[in-house]
Amino acid sequence: MIEVRGLKKRFGPVEAVRGVDLSVRPGECFGLIGPNGAGKTTTLKTLATLVKPDRGQVIVGGLDAVEHAARVRRLVGYMPDVFQSYGDLKVIHYLDYYAALVGLRGSERVRQVEEVLELVDLGPKRSALVGGLSRGVKQRLCLAKTLLHDPKVLLLDEPASGLDPRARIEIRLLLKVLRAEMGKTIVISSHILEDLEEICSRVAVIEAGRVVASGDVAELKAAASGVVRYLLEPAGDPERARAALARSPLIEEVVLDEGRLRIAPAAQAENELDVLELLVAEGIRVRSFREEVPDLHEVFLSLTSGEVA
Fold first, then answer.
1. Most CB atoms closer than 10 Å: which of 74, 159, 182, 228?
2. All domains in the chain, ordered by first residue
3. Closest CA to 231 of 186, 288, 181
């Protein structure tokens, strides 16, 4: 659905994007991870035809985003991190205004406004003034506006920024519906990595205008782990369990952390069975035992250095 090859963009002396390559499949939710100043917003704006690249090629739905910008705009819906809210308008009038801007007329406009109101669960707020809405409700309203022309591709820049936990959950659930039930292709940037980990199947890590890693979330997490580690919650005294494991040549390191043990096996421990057999031999009763898998925070930290474009 989206192919980006060698994308470069400079703003004066600042090279915001330095050769980004991306490939997004139809119907997937693809995440962009990176620090502030990494080039995520510039990349999204280029996909939305709001920024013209200096070099490289951007293909959306089989169309070149520079040569066929007007046709690409009909395919994409862009939700910026900061948007004009027109606080003195009612919710229904706000959506009607934007529906007119995207070319909807007559009964089709009325129908589409009602449909997006229902989709984002803003029916009860239809007569409320936009300026009086909470941050979370405003984000849902902006998403509704983005959906008015029924785009195939959604480009979302920090949609959960500044939201409380409940509002973040609501946005996540809504994005899952848009992808799974409505077949939308979603590209989303966010610094809330646990949200991306839940909704994205693949991500790209961007730093200083370059993609430093891209792929399946599970593969990136496995690559970031480096060495196998296990997390043990003993049923008995955790300090006794730590001391017993530390004596064994099968264990390279064991750390007690709030009643749980983080275990790094030595090279001669071939798999988790060796560690479990050791626990049995030492008489250590186990409440839980599992391999410790890094999360996206650890992936991000392992791949980035803090450099900005």
1. 159
2. 2-222 (3.40.50.300), 226-290 (3.30.70.100)
3. 288
